[in-house]
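Table S2 (text version). Query chain:
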Amino acid sequence: MDVEPISDDVRNALERFVYDNSDLERLEAILDDFNPFQAMQWTRQEVRHSAFLRWLLDPQETHGLGSYFLRAFLKRIAHRSAGLHPMVPSVFDVDSWALTHTEVLQEWSGIDLLIKDDIDRFILVLENKVDSSEHSGQLQRYRSSVE
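Corresponding structure-token output:
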């Protein structure tokens, strides 16, 4: 099946529609008032933060919302990173991904979270920092690990 490329106007309109979602913004405003890490006294526990993020971002996990959180997170990254590098996908690209073969790994080769999908062809490395900053060439080592 041949698919014609979409025009820049249509692509931009679709990206605005996918990114500017008032329902998500209302949900975000509600959730901003509640911090489960604070309620459980985990505000400074990086490993627990990573475990929770792994669970939340994994479409196969028991939260029952499939790829919802992962897709919203990836769209936000795409929107904020637009134009930084030609390999960065657009919001529209992310929205079109199936995310059915996504793996979310915690503490893989020292990487806090590694998200990869061989079908949609992406790898995302997340370094979770609580009261810390990058040290001893961490990011370069992580890049070497995933290349």
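Notes on Table S2: Helices lie at 8-19, 22-32, 36-39, 46-57, 68-81, 91-96, 138-146. The mean pLDDT is 82.
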